[in-house]
Design a protein that fits this description.
The complex is a heterodimer of chains A (144) and B (347). Chain A has helices at residues 11-14, 21-36, 87-95, 123-143, and strands at 2-8, 40-45, 53-56, 63-66, 76-83, 107-111. By secondary structure, chain A is an alpha+beta fold. Chain A is extended, with a radius of gyration of 21 Å. Chain A starts with a strand and ends with a helix. Chain B is mainly α and 347 residues long. Chain B has a domain at 181-341. Chain B contains 15 helices and two strands. Chain B has helices at residues 2-27, 30-51, 57-75, 77-86, 101-106, 109-120, 127-137, 143-150, 154-170, 181-202, 213-229, 234-248, 273-293, 300-306, 322-326; strands at residues 89-91, 97-99. A two-stranded antiparallel ribbon of chain B has the order 1-2. Residues 87-98 and 311-341 of chain B have low confidence and may be disordered. The chains are: A alpha+beta (144), B mainly alpha (347).
């Protein structure tokens, strides 16, 4: 299964404060360990929300709101995409993540939707779509 | 209890290969190392429900395995000669000689991991045995999981693993990474195993499903690990590229009824773009490594990736035969496994 590991923003990350050299080194080692475990599919770190914008849909035209955004617990500072066997495996890996002592930090792990998760709900639609694609490509091939 | 069991399983998956690799370095026998690691796991299953999962579960397992190893070594005089050869030893107050575990553990684990890969995939073993041993020792899969993935009896897999361990032990196969000319030949034996696992997952030879994603994922993981252990090997990156690209098509390979859809008819919007990008990146690494180290690698990944590149898609070049694309062959290094006809019937 795939999970997205969401590193939540903190006051420090929102203020653009860099972690200590020591923590950066430890994080580097940790990241390397994850890569060596064949786990990491993708991952990025994000600039503070002061550099971001929000586009809000509602009544009328979409409204563009410039950062920073205040509710830092709801903001994210970065993410990884991991390939794991279970949620427990993801949790066990996260427990090994280095952290600064006394520094509060939330990490959220969310499973990524996979085709099977859609179950029967989308099946008729998908089937129709595939039938159509097949018909199209058959027509294309026979036209050649 | 159910949750704890799953947690222990997760810890095992993370720690087992490294644990076995470290132990194998010390006892110079991957069969014995695996037994010791399994004993540590049993001990965890027994103790953790009461004590809770320790802060450093890997270190806990290692400590238990290490004590078992000392017990075994005490009983096994014959092994001590081997241990003297191994070099650094420490003397206990009783005057017995044991290997210096801490020194062994402080070593760079990458060397041990690579030795573990090469020993588990030793050409002395049959392909079947190599596959089972690799999934068990490197993948951390249980015998039961392997048996389910291959739709055979658990006892069949267990027997294969026991025999493989015995064969390696009796032949005194050294726990090491081959060097020089032997390396490329031995690497073929490793890649063959990973590719075979992938291929069985990608176009299952038995069962009612066309794919068994567990095996694809496991093979991909092994390939990715190997690529970090051997970053200069064009062959390894080439195989990873091939697997990433092939795996990217899994969501589009069958319809809602479970029937296969050939490459040209697949809905490309359902191809996994992340895996395609990863595959193309691996292919670049393979080409770079091949150029730097003047080696070659199979052109198959390059052909397979051709169709994964951005549009126009209509004419992958050369227009491939779909079956060849669905089931790539990697001649001459990796013969594709012989496939019995696909079972028909309800999917």
């Amino acid at each position: 299964m795939r999970v997205m590991v969401i590193v939540k923003a903190s006051q420090a990350s929102e203020a653009g404060v860099m972690p200590s050299t020591d923590l950066l080194t430890q994080m580097g080692n940790y990241n390397e360990e994850l890569v060596k475990a064949g786990l990491i599919l993708a991952g990025e770190g994000l600039h503070p929300s002061s550099k971001g914008v929000r586009v809000r849909f509602g009544q009328g035209q979409p409204k563009v709101i410039d950062g920073p955004f205040t509710e830092s617990k709801e903001l994210i500072a970065g993410f990884w995409l991991w390939q794991v066997k279970s949620m427990e495996e993801a949790v066990e890996w996260i427990k090994r993540m280095p952290q600064e002592a006394g520094f509060e930090q939330d990490i959220e792990i969310r499973p990524v939707f996979e085709a099977d998760d859609f179950g029967d709900v989308l099946t008729p639609e998908l089937r129709a779509q595939e039938e159509r694609l097949r018909a199209e490509s058959e027509a294309r091939l026979s036209a050649k | 209890m159910g949750n704890l069991h799953r947690t222990i399983e997760a810890v095992w998956r993370i720690e087992s290969a490294r644990l076995i690799a470290s132990l194998a370095r010390i006892v110079q026998d991957i069969g014995l190392a695996e037994d010791l690691a399994q004993e540590a796991l049993l001990s965890a299953l027994e103790k953790w429900p009461e004590s809770g999962v320790p802060d450093k579960p890997g270190a806990w397992l290692m400590a238990v395995a290490k004590n078992r190893a000392i017990d075994v070594l005490r009983r096994n005089q014959r092994l001590q000669q081997k241990l003297d050869e191994y070099g650094r030893v420490w003397l206990d107050p009783m005057g017995a000689v044991y290997p210096d575990f801490d020194a062994a553990l402080a070593r760079d684990i990458d060397d041990e991991m690579l030795s573990l890969v090469f020993t588990a995939c030793h050409p002395l073993l049959s392909l079947e045995a190599r596959v089972a041993l690799t999934l068990k020792i490197l993948g951390g899969l249980s015998t039961n999981e392997i048996a389910r993935a291959y739709l055979v009896q658990e006892s069949t897999i267990a027997q294969r693993i026991v025999r493989a361990k015995r064969t390696l032990s009796e032949a005194k196969v050294p726990f090491e990474t081959p060097q020089g000319e032997a390396l490329s030949q031995r690497l073929d034996a490793v890649l063959e195993v990973i590719y075979l696992i992938f291929n069985e997952g990608y176009s299952a030879t038995s069962g009612t499903h066309w794919t068994r994603p567990v095996l694809c994922e496991e093979a991909l993981r092994l390939g990715r690990i190997l690529a970090t252990l051997m970053p200069d090997s064009s062959e390894v990156h080439g195989l990873v590229a091939l697997m990433e690209i092939q795996a990217s098509r899994i969501p589009a390979r069958s319809n809602a009824k479970g029937e296969p859809i050939l490459l040209m008819d697949q809905n490309r919007a359902r191809w996994d773009q992340l895996l395609i990008r990863r595959g193309l990146a691996s292919l670049e690494k393979a080409e770079l490594a091949a150029a730097c180290f003047k080696t070659t690698f199979s052109p198959t990944p390059a052909i397979a990736t051709d169709t994964a590149r951005p549009p126009p898609w209509t004419a992958p070049k050369p227009l491939p035969l779909a079956p060849m694309h669905c089931r790539p062959k990697l001649p001459p290094v990796m013969p594709a496994p012989a496939k019995p006809p696909k079972p028909t019937g309800p999917k």
